[in-house]
Design brief:
single chain, 244 residues, mainly alpha, 0% strand
Length: 244
């Protein structure tokens, strides 16, 4: 007789056989989504569980990454929907304490990074790139005049639409950088010197220092959000220096 905890459906094994995230390397590859029908480990038999800690760890990483990705996407969408003729205060929506649930997600990323620092950092960089690549897909035509100074409900002319697209793209870029800085800060906060040995630490330092060196002072003077992001980069540099 088949035991209560076992199953003869081999397709269930696919639910805990994610593409190894180690294969990401330095490539910007998407993380495959789990099947929508999958619910939990409850009821899985010994055959599936015998894949060991590695598979469970990969599953945990993917689930947490998807939680981060989805929550971050909702926050960015909320910011994009704000009036386009006024620069939103990103800190009001994204800083520590603005959303305790999102804060916990970042904290969990940091804790998981203790075991897999390279994977978590790579996934955050993947998220940042794919978020920016998807900017052109945002349906500006559907926003109507809600984001324009005159409050018109009619579709804006082409020139105004082009300007709106530029504003949305910049806003999405800044919001994603703000989130990336917060996420990397949460990760580095949990790491020790041994976690950033070799090329991983070098690449992270190069990324952060490069952003600080390349900043345009004129952009900082005219944008409060850019100044806030530079402060986040400076904090991140301090955290990296403490353990390198």
């Amino acid at each position: 007789m088949q035991s209560a905890g076992s199953t003869t459906d081999d397709s269930r094994a696919d639910y805990i056989r994610p593409t190894p995230v180690e294969d990401l390397g330095g490539e910007y590859l998407p993380v495959p989504a789990l099947p929508e029908s999958y619910d939990s480990y409850d009821g899985m038999g010994a055959t599936q569980m015998s894949q060991g800690v590695a598979s469970i760890e990969q599953y945990a990483i993917r689930m947490l990454y998807e939680e981060f990705r989805d929550r971050a996407a909702r926050k960015i969408d909320d910011i994009i929907e704000l009036r386009l003729d006024r620069e939103p205060d990103l800190a009001k929506h994204l800083e520590l304490g603005a959303d305790v649930i999102f804060d916990r997600t970042l904290e969990k990323l940091g804790m998981l990074a203790r075991r897999r620092p390279r994977v978590i950092i790579e996934l955050l960089l993947v998220w940042r790139k794919t978020t920016i690549d998807a900017t052109d897909e945002y349906p500006l035509e559907g926003t109507g005049g809600a984001g324009f100074a005159d409050g018109s409900r009619q579709q804006p002319p082409q020139a105004a639409l082009s300007r709106a697209h530029h504003i949305v793209k910049e806003r999405k870029s800044l919001a994603s950088v703000y989130i990336l800085c917060r996420a990397l800060s949460a990760v580095v906060e949990q790491l020790e010197a041994s976690h950033l040995e070799g090329d991983l630490g070098d690449r992270l330092e190069e990324l952060v220092f490069g952003q600080v060196k390349q900043v345009n002072p004129a952009n900082l003077r005219r944008s409060q959000n850019r100044r806030q992001i530079q402060e986040l980069y400076a904090r991140l540099i301090g955290q990296i220096s403490d353990i390198r």
